[in-house]
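Supplementary Methods, section 5.1.

A reviewer requested that the exact input to the structure prediction be made available. We therefore reproduce it here, unchanged from the version used in the analyses.
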Amino acid sequence: MTEKEQPLPLDQVLVGDCRQILEELPPESIDLIFADPPYNLQLEGELWRPNLTKVDAVDDDWDQFDSFNQYDEFTREWLSACRRVLKPTGTLWVIGSYHNIYRVGKLLQDLNFWFLNDVVWVKANPMPNFRGVRYTNAHETLLWAQKEKGERYTFNYHAMKGLNDELQMRSDWYLPICTGKERLKDEQGEKAHPTQKPEALLYRVILSSSNP
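The structure derived from this sequence is encoded token-by-token as follows.
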């Protein structure tokens, strides 16, 4: 059995460093990738609300990078790993904030991905800017790109139209952030992941860009 004919680990959650796990998958075997990489928020110090309660900010080790160059190197590595496993007809979605999405976009183009759309997720209930020194960050950006320019990719236009009251789906998606019972918790009752995305957002990505 050749590398390309290796069976895929279907219906499984593979836990680990994506750069390593992707290397274990056969080349040109994947139709769709959704990536939610570290945002490199560069937080300095703790964040506090006006009522002196602490903000549960993203301060995990996986979001810590010493420099933009280090972040770019990391991003190039995982994007290259994604490119290797995507079929020529495959597409990639990447979500990010103003902290990282422009750097990711530049590297996508450097690696010869072709942009199909950028989609703005407008948050119906964004977290406020507690310090009151900037605008509230009320949106994130999703980049949708195909591996090979001109290849026939999957886009379920009519399914997306049906999801939008029979109107053509626009590139601004007004959806609430992940809260309440949708939030996954660990054994201590804390958030399992600080930036968990809402199911409604992932549903649109999967519905639009993959087949049942």
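The chain has a mean pLDDT of 89. These observations are discussed further in the main text.
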